[in-house]
Design brief:
It is a single chain. This protein has 124 residues and is an all-beta fold. Strand 5 and strand 6 form a beta hairpin.
Length: 124
C-alpha cells in the first residue's frame, strides 16, 4: 500500500504561483511513477503531469506545458507541482497519484493509489 497526502493548495490571483506537494509513505518510492490530475466541478478528472520513478522523464498536458513543472525528491518521498502563471481555468481539486510502474502515464486508470486532493482556486 502507498499512502499519499497532498498539501499546498489555496487561493491565488491570476498570474500568481503555487507549489503543491505530495508526501508518500509505504513502499519504495522510486518504484512508482507519480502523476498530478485535477478535477473541476462538473468535469471529468484530467491529467496534468507525470514523472517517472527516477525523475528522468516527465510529461505534461498541453494546457499546462511551459507553466507547470513536476519534480520529485526520492530521498524525501515527495513529488511537487510548481504552478506558475496561473489562470482561472486552472481552478480545480488537484490529486496526486502513484502508478505501480516506473514509466510515466497520462490516464487515471493507470494509477493505483490516490491522495485526497487539495483545492486550488485562481481568481480573475
Amino acid at each position: 500500500q502507498v499512502q499519499l497526502v497532498e498539501s499546498g493548495g489555496g487561493l491565488v490571483q491570476a498570474g500568481g504561483s503555487l507549489r503543491l506537494s505530495c508526501a508518500a509513505s509505504g513502499r519504495t518510492f522510486s518504484n512508482y511513477a507519480m502523476g498530478w490530475f485535477r478535477q473541476a466541478p462538473g468535469k471529468e478528472r484530467e491529467f496534468v503531469a507525470s514523472i517517472s520513478g527516477s525523475g528522468g522523464s516527465t510529461y505534461y498536458a498541453d494546457s499546462v506545458k511551459g507553466r507547470f513543472l513536476i519534480s520529485r525528491d526520492n530521498a524525501k518521498n515527495t513529488v511537487y507541482l510548481q504552478m506558475n502563471s496561473l489562470k482561472p481555468e486552472d481552478t480545480a481539486v488537484y490529486y496526486c497519484a502513484a502508478r505501480s510502474r516506473r514509466s510515466v502515464g497520462d490516464r487515471p486508470d493507470e494509477y493505483d493509489y490516490w491522495g485526497q486532493g487539495t483545492q486550488v482556486t485562481v481568481s480573475s
